[in-house]
Amino acid sequence: MLPETCDTSLFLALPDDLFAIISRSLSPRDMCNLSICCKSLCALVASEKIWLSQCDVVGIVPTRDLVEWRDGVLSYKALCRFLVRVKPLIGIWVHQNPELGNVVYVMPGFLSVVGCRIIPQELGPLGIEDGPILWAPVFEIIGHFDGSATFLLHGTEKGCDYFYPGSVKSVERNCNVLLLEVEPREKRNGHKLFSSKSFDHHPDEEISRKVCRSNSGLSKSQSVSGQSEAVVPFSRLAFGDRRKLLETVTDQVCLKVPDSVSGPLFPRLREDVEDFQKDVVLLLQRRSLLLQMYTFGSDHNSTDLKASAEMPADPTRLELSDIRKSLDHSSSCSNSLSGDDGQRHGNNRKSISGYFRASIKQILQKSSSVNGGRAISKCNSSSSDNRHTQLLEFLKSGDTIGLTLHASTLKLSSYRAWPNMHDTRFALYKLPMRVPREDQEYAGLWGGTFGWPPGRPTEDKPGKALFFLLLSYEETEGKRLLIANKILEGTQYVLHPNGSAMFMVNIDEPSLDLFPWDSDADSHPVNVKHAFMGEGIANGYGFRYPGSKPGSLFIIQNGLLAFIWKESRAVLTLQRLNLQELLKKGERVPALPPIANFSYLTKSYSNVFTGFSNTSTFSSSLRQNHI
Fold first, then answer.
1. The pTM is what?
2. Which of the residues 67, 109, 473, 501 could staple to 266 if both were Cys, CB 3.0 to 4.6 A apart?
3. Left if phi > 0, otherwise alpha if psi is -120 to 50, otherwise beta: which for 194?
4. Where are the alpha helices (DSSP H) in 492-603?
5. What's the CA gap between 239 and 363, in Å, rounded?
6. Is the preceding peptide bond at 165 cis, omega within 30 degrees of 0?
């Protein structure tokens, strides 16, 4: 072909279907850049088929779900913007506490992603596949009409369910830490704290720019705050100050969950088409109501524009103007609170500034007394003053304050595939999910119980503790090791530390041990494909430093793994899990209070969820009322 004939006209002559196939080799950023080359290419890239193809490439949900999600946004371009932003959040997030396991699985909802905590539990007689898995909601990130993201923290207080609305600060592409923070911001658009969250202010021609921005991992708040040279980050504050700020903000932005939005967070499996379609209708209605609540506060049914104008411009943010005035007087920092608990919960939103001023005084008092008040030396006094100054500077860096979710990338050390976590950060840590491949075919999430046949209860023990293990590969000293880290333990009192290796095997060292059983639970003969030598966890030097004893891992033909300790003959049987399907068939239980529900920092060796271990009545009534 002659060079002079190779212009954009040939490119534009391609049918939409063919160009959609070609576009699958391009990223959303590439498509945005292509759209600004010329008007003709901009019109070509604006095709719905092109952006449906891009949404499919992101890979969060299958194409048939994308078609249903499209009804809730202006275009597939807007939908792609949301999918690109939340994709790094999908997966398993954990925390060291409680030691029984703190597993939060982030999965697609409906035009949203949902963080679900798996409750430590026993396995019933129906087994893993058919027995309902107990879970509690942690947070939701809901897509707006323009593809922007809304953050809702879940929590339960005094027997009632609440939402705690906030914003998504940023989601880095390779994030491994999910942080709950408080963020000051400047007012925008004159008297309003934020621009309206409806799509009316975000025409479709702006979405390509927003897709590129969301793909870069930087949020608007970061761009604004980047203009200020001396902004104190939330992570630099003392732990007591961070905790009190979170408690104060969540106490004020909370919205009681009405019956109209207390239904399912995601649709059930597609096995029953009629029930699935009912779920989709309910979820569309629920999402619409949630977005109204997020925009206007608890009066989410209000459609009066005058009434809306008199309401707070953004119910997710709290004013700091009055507080900053009081902070200018250093003497106020040492004053104690004069009010009682009745004042805290009796005041409405009109008196938020007064309540918040008193709360900040308490924070500042504790910052100076707890963090440094006990120190007598000049060095310690200087440290206390520095922390106090940091809090002042943090609060002075904006006019409003609110909850934020920040997905960041930090350098973390690890031991035997388990990350070393910070004890004082309100955070969740992402576990890398290795996709099984030919040389690492056993990588991934597995679940099971002790005993053979697997999952079969006995008369003296009708339920067995359910274990979740994450299997990964590691090469050290020329050996290829398969490591099984415990991330969930369904006992009432923990046996081994969270994240400890239940067993490690050398996949290059075959085992000569024989499998001690000839048949499985259905009396079918057991066919062992492979066996590897290794070591299993055992009692050691106290709880924190377990020991190990020799054993063998058996790969059984029907997809089971079985590790047998050679001395005790104890057997741990595992099967591969599809956590998303299990949760869609599971039973929902109430959440913890908001901050502990996100990140449980208290050291605990028992089941802190034991009060919710028998909650089938709650889940059954929930399904009957809303499904």
1. 0.82
2. 109
3. beta
4. 579-584, 594-598
5. 11
6. no
